[in-house]
Amino acid sequence: MAGEELESTRLALREAVAEAERAAELARLLDAAQTKIAEAERATAELRGVQERLSETEKLLEAAHTAEERLRRDLAEQRYQAEVAKWKLSSVQVARWSRIGDALKTGKSNPVRLARGLRGAARPAKRPVAPKRQPVSQKTADRSAAAAASFQATTSTRTVGGTSVKLKPFRVPTGPNTRPHLTVAVVAEPHAEALLRYEWRQSAGFTPKDFARVLAAEVPHLLVVESVTEGPWAEEVREPGEGLNALLSWCAERGIRTVFWHTGGDVERSVAAARLFEHIVTALPRSVAAWGAALASWEPESGRRAPSLGLLPFAVQPRVHNPLPLAGDRFDRVLTLDELLPGHLSYPDVLTSYRWPRAVDCPPGTEAWRLAELAACGTPIASSRPSDPAPESAAAAADADARRAHVALRQAYGSGTMTQKVDDLLDAVGLPSARATLNISVIMIDRGDLGHTLAQVAPQKGVVQLVLLSDAPDAAERARAAMPDRVDVVVRPADPGLTTGGQLDRALDLCQGDLVAVMDARDAYGEHYLTDLARAFLFTTADIVGKAAFYAHLRDVAATVLRQPAAEYSYLPEVAGATLLARRTVLRGLGFADVSEGWDEVLMRQCRTDGVKVFSADRFGYVCLRDHDSRLLGSARLVDYGPPAPHALI
């Protein structure tokens, strides 16, 4: 009996100790979660302060612009009044009675001079022309900035089903330009102008009357004229007149190449104008045959060759067609295309609408470019799920929509961006298409499983160099065999005397790509991981890109969780070190701290100190694999008990 009581006591004590350990662990997790919450609240407060300061600055800037405009109007009025005063004085001076008085005064002591003066005063004199008020002069020092400032969304209200909804307009960026060495004069409507304005230094807004004065300020290398149907050039494109002929003659005198861009309407309507250009491109592949027939039936003038014919289709422009969200949540409805895009919207307002709804139902026959633009803005197309999902499936349905939208976004960019289409155009007309690249060097530290390490980096696109730190005796041969021939493989032995940060710093000195990626050999990366991540450099001003929202898999409980799901597509104080992709020059300036644990946290603190922008991209393509890690639970939600690949590696 005593033995049984002793055994039961031991069991009770063991259970009590286990309960105490669990309670201590829960308390530690709670403390960690509270610390994270406090940090998030502090970061939110800082962001709110920055937004408030930005709003105040924008108001001050607007007030300054208003005051400047008022002063400019006052100056114009003063100049006009001065011209009126001069005109009145001139009118008095040429009046007959005034000239008779002058003759009497100057000839009172000389009869001959008096007679001559009276004879001249008797003849009629031409009256001066009265001055007219001129338009208020505008600033011309920053013509591109002024044009970009005017190309902004203006309509913040949408009406759906009789309900009015207010949203914050998408702010159209003013730059940067892909090819700042190239200046192009463009006649285009707002949609086409938005596609082209970031590809070069663009001169727009000139008319048939003032093009010589406007373009002379910075002579372009190329002229692109769209088949516009509105604006000052519409009549010239429909029936070539003095303005278009003068513009093309002005370009010919200066050796400026000319391109006519057919984007819509019947070919016959544009043939007369297009024949005057050196090159013709069309955005509509189905119209190539009609253009070929029209050009074949035309005999060029003596000494002039027939224009060449090519394609320049509409494509995604990363600076405006991207998943950067509007402020606030999406409108929780699936809208038809007509509800989303009423006819009165300007194109900057269209860019706002693209980002607004939960999903868009597009009818059959919708233009491919419209579908691509919607997809590039991260909006799911033609959602088939119920409009009001059951509460228990709402999160799963939202995740499915996010995966579907991400795949569509990737496909939209994969079909070719406007930058790539313009490369083809410039090559065809004989102008240099050189631009900055986004080649990537990857740093990986082998942790004992070289096969797994190489399997993560080998499928990646855009990699030009692999810097591998490994102690495996055949690491160099296996790495060169696994990587494509285009990739330069650099293998160095890992130095046990160095910290992780020290080894990364040493590897950084060997990198030659425009971007440098740090990948963790313990984790899993999808084949599109680097392609998706590098895309953020096309539409952000960040120097470091990574993931603050990502999937993690804990092997001890076979659970897949999603960390910080709200942190996608936003500028944040930090991202995970295993997802780091940075501009090489910036990363070299920052360096890696000489520590093994938390080197990424130190780097992020340095970024905040130095003002380096850090951007968190999408949640997909990467999985943090750990046996157990309680820190991941502090800001994560459970996705599934099972493998992470179906959720993350799409």
Automatic annotation (TrEMBL):
Coiled coil: 3-60
Highest taxon in the source lineage: Bacteria
Alphabetical UniProt keywords: Coiled coil
CDD domains (UniProt xref): Glyco_tranf_GTA_type
Disordered as annotated region, ranges: 119-153
The UniProt record lists the keyword Nuclease: no
Ranges of Low complexity composition bias in the record: 143-153
Keyword Coiled coil among record annotations: yes
Protein's name according to its UniProt entry: Glycosyltransferase 2-like domain-containing protein
